[in-house]
Amino acid sequence: MKIAFFDAKDYDKPAFDRYGKERGIEFKYYETRLDADTAQLARGCEGVCAFVNDDLSAPVIDILYDEGIRVIALRSAGYNHVDLRHCYGKIHVVRVPAYSPYAVAEHTMAMLLTSVRRIHKAYNRTREFNFSLSGLTGFDLHSKTVGVIGTGKIGSVFLDICKGFGMNRIAYDKYPRADADFPYVSLDELFAKSDVISLHCPLLEDTYHIIGRDALTKLKKGVIILNTSRGALIDADALLDGIKQRIVGAACLDVYEEESELFFQDYSGHIVEDDTLARLLTMPNVIVTSHQAFLTEEALSNIADTTTENLITMSRGQVCKNELCYGCEEMEQCKKQRRERCF
Ligand code: NAI
Predict the structure, then answer these.
(1) Do both 76 and 133 map to the same domain?
(2) How far is CA 42 from CA 7, 38, 67, 73, 334, in A?
(3) Given 92, 230, 257, 323, which residue is catalytic?
(4) Secondary structure of 313-340 in the HEC alphabet?
(5) N or C, fewer C-beta in 10 Å, the chain?
(6) Do 161 and 40 lie in a common domain?
(7) Which residue out of 12, 82, 99, 104 has the highest number of ligand 1 atoms within 8 Å of its CB and is therefore the one to mutate?
């Protein structure tokens, strides 16, 4: 089985080569992203393997279909960048629903601790032999209230980590867990009570800009906002205003709405056009990482394992539990009850 692998990075190859060899899949690695100009590179392959910033809009799907592609294997959990409805009847889409919720949840806590204890500043200072503590005062996380939006796999692990820190925990989820050991509250209550807000819900129509201008009016003054989910959950311009108005005390962002233009690439020698991101990066209380929350050895191995397994299952015409549903409106329920292929 031959698969065109777009947006390939050096860290992807060892695990994909290992599992590919074991399962009889040959990956053709392309560093370029998938878009309407590069989709033809998939010619001669049966499927494509794509990542979060590849373009899987309708025109690209049409080109892939014309080139003979019948399966898109996402090596990500998120699928907001795929026009699923356009794929229906043409191309099956599979994903990796979970590869290490610990990787993302631990990175979220790493960013929170870095921000609260000013580790990013201390690191730079001591390398310059500046051992002054001035301006490095943090605060205890213990007894502070963390509000988690989205209590799925990652949100739940993050809530467990916060429990270990002795934090008060509240959460909001459209589909609450029945076995939760923390209270669910309304979104407005979460905004009003949380000292720290962490986003772990998917990017959907009703979660787009969930932290936007309206939310700013409801937030507790000084709140720390963590986003390791998807950039467009936050209106970056509104966030910037919230920071300037001292409503938002700090922001830790592993994802950014316009990240596809920048993230995963080295632009250190370039003039970056995105003024909002540039301004955010000048703020002492903003920490940005480049969509790296997933990047652990364990996660990379699990991603390659599940992706190759998904591809083999689909090539055999079997039911793949990781196939996304695009034939009906009941996406969440349908995924959970999958008994057959979508078409
Ligand atoms: P999950 O599917 O296990 O959990 C998502 C949760 O969000 C579910 O409990 C669901 O009920 C809830 N939800 C759905 N609609 C909602 C709404 N309108 N309002 C509030 N909650 C809602 O997903 P998982 O694995 O926990 O991943 C969460 C997100 O993390 C993904 O959607 C993905 O975008 C992001 N992610 C980021 C990574 C990174 O490297 N930064 C890596 C992996 C995932």
Answers:
(1) no
(2) 13, 8, 7, 13, 30
(3) 230
(4) HHHCCCCCCCECCCCCCCHHHHHHCCCC
(5) C
(6) no
(7) 104
Same domain, 237 and 198: yes
The whole-chain average pLDDT of the chain stands at 95
Nearest CA to ligand 1 atom 8: 152
Ligand 1 neighbour 112 (Cβ under 6 A): no
Res 16 pLDDT > 80: yes
Domain of 43 in residue numbering reads as 2-99+297-333
pLDDT of residue 117: 98
**Inter-residue contact 64 to 90 (CB < 8 Å):** no
Statement to judge: residues 146 and 177 lie in one domain? yes
Mean pLDDT confidence for 235-240? 98
Average pLDDT over residues 50-74: 97
Domain match, 233 and 268 both: yes
> What SS3 class is residue 176?
coil
Q: Is 67 a catalytic residue?
A: no
pTM (two decimals):
0.91
Are 56 and 141 part of one and the same domain? no
Neighbours of 129 (CB within 10 A): 6
Confidence tier at 342 by pLDDT (50, 70, 90) = confident
Are 78 and 147 within one domain? no
The tally of domains found in the chain comes to: 2
Residue 343 covered by a domain: no
| 330-to-91, 327, 338 alpha-carbon distances in Å | 19, 9, 12
